[in-house]
Write a structure and sequence with these properties.
With 151 residues, the chain is α+β, with helices and mostly antiparallel strands. The chain has one domain (2-150). The protein contains 4 helices and 8 strands; from the N terminus they run ββααβββαβαββ. The strands form 3 sheets. A 4-stranded mixed β-sheet has the order 4-5-7-8, with helices on one face. Mean pLDDT is 83; it is low at 1-6. This is SseB protein N-terminal domain-containing protein.
Length: 151
């Protein structure tokens, strides 16, 4: 756990949430808002998990991310990067809003969406914070004294 200036315990999720979404006054906030709006209204490809059960996810720094891809080429780049280019990658096409509003809260753990994760800076991360996911799935509610585990 990291400590803040008031020596109150903070989780890694707090640190992650602060880094992931720009402050509303920051110049990049408008860009992120537009990116999020575009993602919400766009159907994306979501590979199925092992044995075609559930959605493909990856855990990073205590957060689970649903992996989504903007087109078959982006999914192919991911498959190649994972050494799985030779096999079939079954997927579902899901609206971005449905991933954020339904799939993320259903995960039962802190969860966000990673879009085109094999594309480096051209990919995007939609973290589990207010304004991106429903309040009940947002990790930054801990700032208001509501631990994620008690929701």
């Amino acid at each position: 756990m990291a400590e803040n200036a008031g020596d109150a315990p903070r989780s890694r999720l707090d640190d992650y949430a602060e880094m992931a979404v720009p402050e509303p006054e920051a110049p990049e906030a408008e860009w992120f808002t537009e990116l999020l709006a575009e993602f919400r209204r766009t159907p994306v490809l979501v590979p199925l998990g092992e044995n075609e059960r559930g959605l493909l996810t990856a855990d990073w720094n205590g957060v689970r991310f649903i992996l989504a891809f903007s087109d078959p080429q982006a999914l192919a780049r991911y498959a190649r990067a994972r050494g799985g280019y030779h096999r079939e990658w079954p997927y579902q096409t899901i609206l971005g809003a449905r991933l954020l509003d339904v799939a993320v809260p259903a995960a039962g753990v802190p969860c966000g969406v990673a879009l085109d994760c094999a594309d480096g800076p051209d990919g995007a991360v939609f973290p589990p914070v207010r304004g991106v996911v429903p309040a009940e799935a947002a990790v930054d509610l801990e700032d208001e004294g509501v631990p994620y585990e008690q929701r």
